[in-house]
């Protein structure tokens, strides 16, 4: 096979240099593979090369000294030039890759990309604008596709967000039902920007003539996979709570459903049964691997209720713990997911201490306001960017009205 | 720091105060397409005698983009509210408002709403209505404005990815803001398009007759955006206004002919004294 040098386009080096020397500047300018145009600072065309004339179909005499460069643009393009490009040209002395459409003599539009330079005299006064233009027809088609693709992406994203929000809302009750003698509020905040469905859920529902159930749980994971499990968990607990002999038995029912439908999907949950005991409001708390409810007594002392128990949906057998507590006027109980306590700032966690602090400062608030305050404080602690979902339910026993 | 100054607005609108402390305030407002840099050659001319105040409208220049509210800035009233916010934040009175392009009308709106704060209006290349209307020649049709929006789209392809982190509101990363400042006249394309609509679809002809302040209309030669007939119309509608025709061509005499522009403003202010 012949070597590369054997196939060189020029055999005679002298002939090559002579051809290069013949490439006189006039010829280089006039028949350059781009359009050249020079204009006075006001836009009046003073010089133009043959390439531009060939592309646009104008006679040189019709342009030079007669037309302003801006007159050759579409009206919209002219506004863009006057309001955006011209100021930049004056301030930076140059323009790069400005997309324009030149209206040819035939009336057809030629998409071009333009670079320009503003030459000034020694006194800094604008002297002449030099422009080069490249045919950008194919690029324009490609850019349109890109723009269309970006719009589609934005629309898809908006739809996905609506879907995520709608799904998420289905994990929370539309409104908190009233429980006689108690003040209950709930608050939720998705992780990040809320574009993905989280696995936290809570609900408050009536289980009997004088009994109510509150469930709050956290399905491990995010997105669609976690969402289907979360929906199953929320409705299963609700159904189980109506028939089960105890809150612990209801959570065991949830566990069995998880194991049979979505094995190895971890879930933690709290189910609290509220009823009336002679000493006050009785809470029966069943816990499946979930952070324990925090109780702030009327005297300001803090305690947790119950034992943690085992995670739901993992092992074949499960140990759900159950304990009771009595609430009297002035007491507050907070149910929360780990998104609250594990909110981080550098190496520090929001922790139960964070909740305790908010409760101390919100003794006068309603349960709803207290729940909102806890979410807000946990969020502020993480500088507004929640790493995990945050769900909080607050139950308060109001003090008797003294008025 | 002066007590009572609302630093929120000053940061939000990237307000730059210069010139003579205690002097009569001149507030310079930029138009559609750029930022306070438009006044970089004109404002210094007045620095000896006046307190000069430059700012960027929210959404432009180095303003706080996170403060951009599409609702507020869907009409020129929102922009006029920015002017009033700045004037109130600095507690200015007897303000000489110098507005370029669409900001001329923004100034008219602001001065009509808070007449006690303003002393004079300088309208540089103003137009109260850009679209042609029954018997009125604004110079443009709605199709032209659609074309402008397409042009904005095409010229911001490269912008979006480079500037995206700034739009997301990284107030804690000032270096991004600095980058924005360095690239003149660059703004979120969506904001530009909304500003374009607010500007070119506005009709403020009726507001001109409400102006009672001394007003100067500066008309450029061969201005495609605000043609001669429009400048003459503005002058006729504002009672007692002064019309000065500049030799400067194009739409931005503040950049292309700053000396002539500043001279015309100075002559008007000297006479108004």
Characterise the protein shown here.
The complex is a heterodimer of chains A (403) and B (273). Chain A has 403 residues and is an alpha+beta fold. Chain A is 36% helix and 29% strand. Chain A has helices at residues 13-22, 25-30, 50-56, 60-63, 75-92, 137-169, 223-243, 247-261, 338-341, 351-361, 367-381; strands at 35-39, 45-48, 94-103, 109-120, 126-135, 183-189, 200-208, 211-219, 267-277, 280-288, 294-296, 302-304, 321-327, 332-336, 344-345, 348-349, 390-396. Chain B has one domain (7-272): Rossmann fold, CATH 3.40.50. Residues 160-182 of chain B have low confidence and may be disordered. The longest helix of chain B has 15 residues, at 258-272. Chain B has helices at 7-12, 76-89, 102-113, 142-154, 157-167, 174-182, 189-200, 205-208, 228-237, 253-256, 258-272; strands spanning 16-19, 25-29, 51-54, 95-100, 118-124, 215-221, 242-249. With 273 residues, chain B is an alpha/beta fold. Chains A and B meet through helix 5, strand 3 and helix 6 of A and helix 4 and helix 5 of B.
Major sheet of chain B, described briefly? 7 strands, mixed
CATH homologous group name of chain B: Alpha/Beta hydrolase fold, catalytic domain
According to CATH, what is the class of chain B? Alpha Beta
Order of helical and strand elements of chain A? HHEEHHHEEEHEEEHHEEEEEEHEEHHE
| Portion in strands of chain A | 25-35%
Q: What is the gyration radius of chain A calculated from CA atoms?
A: 37 Å
As residue ranges, the low-confidence spans of chain A are: none
Q: Quick check: average pLDDT of chain A?
A: 90
